[in-house]
Amino acid sequence: EKGGYEHFMLKEMYEQPKAVSDTLSPRIKGNRIVIEELGMSDEEIRSIRKIYIIACGSAFHSGMTNKYVFEGLARIPVEVDLASEFRYRDPIFEPDTLVIIVSQSGETADSLAALREAKAHGVPVLGIVNVVGSSIAREADHVMYTWAGPEIAVATTKAYSTQLIAQYLLALKFAQVRGTVTDEELEEMIQDLKELPDQIEMLLNNKEKIQHFANRYIAARDVFFIGRGIDYAISMEGSLKLKEISYIHSEAYAAGELKHGTISLIEDGTLVAAVLTQESLYKKMISNIEEVRTRGAFVLAVTNVGNHEVEKTADYVIYIPKTNRYFTNSLAIIPLQLFGYYVAIGKGCDVDKPRNLAKSVTVE
Ligand code: M6R
């Protein structure tokens, strides 16, 4: 049932090009985004004044990325909340708010409770869900499915990737209706989206290089992931992938925050994974890389092809192919997933069933 792969996690990472393509293609009609099942009128979409994205774990990280995407493309303010926090903080529900609940299983207790809380306040809820007919899919007012197919490994990979895609599509749909992107921009972005499956495949095929690198870090004690903006969001997911399956302590930090505390933890040889996919932030990131290197860190950089500047500062560079600046996380996550996987394998961990974790957290 693992289709010749050693683990479900590896199989599911390899299913990402298909999962992404299955999530994308039914919603792209020529140069327009059409989400038939959404059931929201243009008038409703135009009236949204605030979005809450609520989720747990990796689904929460997908929301962190898409805060930048919704705000940048559709110009709607977005707050991203952990479901377990949202529920208990007496959130303010104003008219024209949309709540988006993101969940692979559709059964996560805190996410479901947040959904009920929003509905009880008369706020429309859109579920972005993978499991068809799950509780969140049934109870939400609108549902958009991520067509990742069944995911078995506890550490999510393909479901996470499709959560990114579903939210890009939604942001673009909103932008299209609200007129916040031009037809040319939309056309270009659709073109970039269509290229993602092949680009993901290409990155997966680079796995030996990452495996080789990962083998050097199986005895690591702490690993830090740093980035700015959208790259901070992907750092959070990269850090979770590593720690949940390899049991190595890791933290994600907004690169600009380093010198407000974390930098004191950097020692000789500490691994820092720096993600820099946003051209406007290259310079800032490079100076953060210099800061940690001066303190002895070994820096792995994940950046766009063509960013040669970083070669002069980082110790090891992994390139991702060119795409729109809003979609880079779909590519940057692949080497980070592979890194977590190979470190865990190198340590002999049970990657598909890490200790203390359940695939679906149905208790509060
Ligand atoms: O089924 P859900 O998407 O609601 O699950 C949310 C989290 O429990 C899940 O993403 C978890 O963090 C994974 N172990 C991450 O790999």
Overall description:
Its EC number is 2.6.1.16. It is found in: Cytoplasm. The chain has 364 residues and is an alpha/beta fold. It has helices at residues 8-14, 16-24, 42-47, 57-74, 83-86, 109-120, 135-139, 158-178, 183-204, 207-214, 230-246, 282-294, 329-346; strands at residues 28-29, 32-33, 50-55, 78-82, 97-103, 125-129, 142-145, 222-227, 249-254, 271-276, 298-304, 316-320. The strands form three sheets. Strands 4-3-5-6-7 form a five-stranded parallel β-sheet, with helices on both faces. Strands 9-8-10-11-12 form a five-stranded parallel β-sheet, sandwiched between helices. A two-stranded antiparallel sheet has the order 1-2. The mean pLDDT is 96. Bound molecules: 5-amino-5-deoxy-1-O-phosphono-D-mannitol. 5-amino-5-deoxy-1-O-phosphono-D-mannitol binds at residues 56-59, 103-105, 108, 111, 154-156, 240, 244, 357, 360-361.
Q: Are there runs of 5+ residues with pLDDT below 50, and where?
A: none
Number of helices: 13
Largest sheet: 5 strands, parallel
Helicity, in percent? Answer: 40-55%
Which structural class fits the helix and strand makeup? alpha/beta
Describe the structure concisely.
44% of the residues lie in helices and 17% in strands. The chain is an alpha/beta fold and 364 residues long.
Task: Please render the helix and strand layout as text.
Blueprint: H1 8-14, H2 16-24, E1 28-29, E2 32-33, H3 42-47, E3 50-55, H4 57-74, E4 78-82, H5 83-86, E5 97-103, H6 109-120, E6 125-129, H7 135-139, E7 142-145, H8 158-178, H9 183-204, H10 207-214, E8 222-227, H11 230-246, E9 249-254, E10 271-276, H12 282-294, E11 298-304, E12 316-320, H13 329-346
Parallel strand pairs: 3-4, 3-5, 5-6, 6-7, 8-9, 8-10, 10-11, 11-12
Antiparallel strand pairs: 1-2
Helix pairs in contact: 2-8, 2-9, 4-8, 4-11, 9-13, 10-13, 11-13
The chain binds 5-amino-5-deoxy-1-O-phosphono-D-mannitol.
The site of 5-amino-5-deoxy-1-O-phosphono-D-mannitol has 17 residues, from helix 4 and helix 11.
Protein name: Glutamine--fructose-6-phosphate aminotransferase [isomerizing]
Function: Catalyzes the first step in hexosamine metabolism, converting fructose-6P into glucosamine-6P using glutamine as a nitrogen source.
Keywords: Aminotransferase, Cytoplasm, Glutamine amidotransferase, Repeat, Transferase
